[in-house]
Amino acid sequence: MAKEVTGTVMKVSGPLVVAENMAGTKMYEVVRVGKDRLVGEIIRLEGDTASIQVYEDTSGLTVGDPLVKTGLPLSLELGPGILDGIYDGIQRPLERIQQICQSVFVPRGVDVPNLDRDKLWDYTPQNVKVGDLVSGGDIVGVVRENGLFKKHFIMVPPKFSGRVKKMMPAGKYTIETPVVEIEEAGNTTTVMLFQRWPVRQARPCVEKLQGKEALLTCERVIDALFPVTLGGTAAVPGAFGCGKTVISQALSKYSNSDVVVYVGCGERGNEMAEVLSDFPELTTMIDGKEEPIMQRTTLVANTSNMPVAAREASIYTGVTTAEYFRDQGYNVAMMADSTSRWAEALREISGRLAEMPADAGYPAYLGARLASFYERSGRVTCLGNPVREGSITIVGAVSPPGGDFTDPVTSATLSIVQCFWGLDKKLAQRKHFPSVNWNISFSKYIRILAPYFETYDPEYSMLQQQMKEILQKEDDLQEIVQLVGKDSLSEDQKCTLEVAKIIREDFLQQNGFTDYDFMCPLAKTIGMMKVIVGFHEAAQKAMAEFSGEHKVGWNSIYASTKGLIKKITDMKFELPRQSEEHFRKTFVALHEEVLAAFRTLAEEK
Length: 605
Known about the structure:
Its EC number is 7.1.2.2. By secondary structure, this protein is α+β, with helices and mostly antiparallel strands. The protein has 16 helices and 28 strands. The strands form 6 sheets. Strands 8, 18, 19, 20, 23, 24, 25, 26, 27 and 28 form a 10-stranded mixed sheet that branches. Strands 1-2-5-4-3-6 form a 6-stranded antiparallel β-barrel. The radius of gyration is 28 Å and the shape is globular.
């Protein structure tokens, strides 16, 4: 073996190590620090010295300790075996480390291959034969990963191209087996079942496209009022206990994405443990067989008791994994919980480097780092043949201290993302969950998504607008009610207040622990909107048409439609796992019943 190129440690400051004799190294190169060979990454070069961010606990390091240069950037191994796994911030497999070390802690300097080298995978060649020209992104074969994720495509790595010289037949292979050999200008390169890719570099695509389909979250408040596209960005800021993690987990469980990458970045360990215990129990029916949804999920865990510096890498690890599945033509949802903890890791390292601090001690480049992360989302045309499209939707939770949305991380995130689900402490205290505040939240995707939703119901845009107006009016009227009481309001205003109450309590509120409301398919959401808005319109119309001695007030409408209002508030009890046709019939019938009730009321007058 060639002699290892070494440097020496000259200063240790928490996760930051400064080393000398580092001439010839590159930025973001991985080095192994000290006798325990801790993993570190070069983040600043100055003359012969390098500042190294160490991804493990540095206690016990001393001045003069050796330091080994690897010459490689921090890279991930992308291939079969990523799904249904849990990794730390630099893609070390936590489950396998636990089996090898028989310890609940990750030993320092542990060196385990990221993907299992011994497992055999069913490989089938596809699309190409010997003599064909191939380029980066071309699909050359397919591996069956598991019962839920059946097609894991094997692609030519992005920067390779040439003529196929040799191909392996279908069979069972380990991930290091060269399944295709490519020759270009006399050089032979091999395509294995996995590929390496540096985390800080975005994977290339042909072009970015505008999103056109919705990420259906199965949460009414989001699907109805603040939708996000497949390939969009959303931020979920909220104080402690408002339900950020629960929203992220609900998206992972029930959204219409093909792959979920869940990054637990600096949150409490019990939240990741909850994901690990919940997800394997949740199943979906595939070809008549129950498959756990954990099989389409990969977890990157960097909880609050793990080294701070590795938090910074965990976000990049997650998004690079998401890009790999996007390149195969899948829709990927990436949950980052929480980006505030990631920003704190940036602040820690920036402070150690003695950089000039900006607002609240965060580095001046915080906004640029956040933007470059969110920029890696989007719907794209993938590289290579066959032509395919993929997308990455990023949902970033933000934890502003004390729920203060003027915090630098929140305000920087708000200027980047297109969809904002603001969680409200007051709603959470009232046990109104999901506690998305409809007065401060927004989505800039509504106009883009209108054609998509109108395939479900041509009136969707109108229904959404009406609902928002009713909630807005309620907010305006609330002040008057608190000052002088309900009796001072006009009849139509009383009606608006009551309908707004139905929207709040029986439409926007959703209990994730019940068998009827743990999710809500779009057909049910739109059906409920139609009935509620239809009732409001019919009531307002009845009050406007009859004046003078035949005047109809809200009290008389309420008295004559009591049973109907009960039916409207009971709509949520329709079980979610039923066909679209069933929901359509049920809610159209109820809508007709509403109109018929008001016709009867008019005839009586």
